[in-house]
Amino acid sequence: MAFTILHTRLADRGAALPADCLRVANGRITAIGGPEIAQPGDTLVDGSGTTLLPGLIDAHIHLAPGCTQLAATYGVTMQLDLFSMPEVIHQETPRSSFFTSSIGATAPGGHPTIAFPPIPYVTGPDDAKRFVADRVAEGADHLKLIYDDGSGAGLNLPTLDPRTVQALTDEAHTHGLTVVAHVSTAAAAVTVAECGVDVLAHVPSDLMSPEDIEAVADVAVIATLSVLADGFNGPSGHLPLLDEPELMARMPARWQDLLDQQSRRWMPPVPPDSTAARANTLALHRAGVRVLAGTDAPNPGLVFGASLHRELVRLVGAGLTPAEAVVAATSAPAEVFGLADRGRLTVGARADLLLVDGNPLADITATQRIRHIWVGGELVRPEDYAGSEQELAAMRFLGETTDRILAAVKEMFPQPRPT
Predict the structure, then answer these.
(1) What is the CATH number of the domain that holds 256?
(2) Which of 69, 78, 193, 323 is 20 to 30 Å from 309 by CA-CA measure?
(3) Which is nearest to 116 in space by CA: 136, 98, 102, 131?
(4) pLDDT value at 401 more than 50
(5) Which of 215, 237, 203, 235 is nearest to 314 (CA)?
(6) Domain span at residue 339?
(7) Cis peptide before 298 (omega within 30 of 0)
């Protein structure tokens, strides 16, 4: 179907284009200009009072059945999966797009193995060549590795050593793969940057020094501020996503119920402090580091698609401008991960589009006021997901994952037997 969107603000790379109309045919953007670009037979979309964005990109998720369908209903048309099992990857029928690392590289018993069935581990540098080759054979688009000993959370976990991180990074680069490293502390971020990784998954949760910032200046960072900020109950007594009316209006009932259940799970008396993470995000951004928007969905409190809009609010709260936050969810991840036809409003780009009321370049909450979404030029119908088999499969999958984690935790911390 060919259509032309008329009289809208076109937002590309965080700035408004001089043109105000955009035409789509055969799933691609074919023209940008004035009303004259419309062709006979085009469907005309009145964009008065709106802004047209490239489809949003969530740079950090873990796949669940149907997650591409759910994300698309919120205008998130691309997701970057950073650790999933091949059987989950191959059963997903994409409504929007995703790229994957497949299984991440971690030490035996290291993070996050309690959430997954048995996986291949990396025991040292000699395993790097085989591990990367196996991920490439599974169809991996990038490599994920874990460098986290748990100290940031007061735990003691096995983790890869720096020589192994270096070997994995070097081997992945020989295959042309971008390397994403999970870290939680400033010291770990510096170490993996010295090993040549390309992206940090998570901004460190302890305050980075100016020397730390300088040491990672050539590495992009996926901030994932919402993991702490939205994963625990807010002042209202429940998870913050439940307090967002525009986002909840699109939320299927089963996901609303899941958020309500998660609001009633055990939580520490005081939520984790994300002050240092916000300060690090701003300091890295000011140092020229590419900050990318990512959620780490489906961790508790986080929902595919919906939570990326919350992450944008968190980035602005950390000190980025609304326009810079939009870049973090569009052109920046596309450029860092080499997605040549995504994240931009340019002729020839794939027509993944988000039309919203208002101006998100000035008010980031405008991304939540969704009017229309197109994936590959096809209009997204949110009602097609709610109650679908994909939604039911997601609930089953998340229930099984939760049961697996709880069983592992009980084994690690057995309850005392009654006497």
Answers:
(1) 3.20.20.140
(2) 193
(3) 102
(4) yes
(5) 203
(6) 55-346+380-412
(7) yes
Type of residue numbered 29 = I
The total number of structural domains in the chain stands at: 1
What pLDDT, in 10s, does the model give residues 30-85?
Answer: 999 999 999 999 999 999 999 999 999 999 999 999 999 999 999 999 999 999 99
Instruction: Point out the least confidently predicted range of 19-33, 252-266, 342-356.
Output: 252-266
d(CA 101, CA 103): 6
Reading phi first (left if > 0) and then psi (alpha if -120 to 50, else beta), residue 356 is in: beta
Is pTM beyond 0.85 here? yes
Strand order across the beta sheet in which 353-357 lies: 15-16, 9-12, 50-54, 353-357, 370-375, 378-379
Mean pLDDT for the chain? 94
Maximum C-alpha span of the chain:
83
CA dihedral sign of residues 370, 355, 301, 269:
negative
pLDDT at 405: 80
Which tokens hold the place of 154?
Answer: 């007061």
Tell me how far CA of residue 382 lies from CA of 18, 200, 372, 385, in angstroms. Answer: 31, 33, 10, 6
Q: Give the pLDDT confidence of 109-129 residue by residue, as tens digits.
A: 999 988 888 899 999 999 999
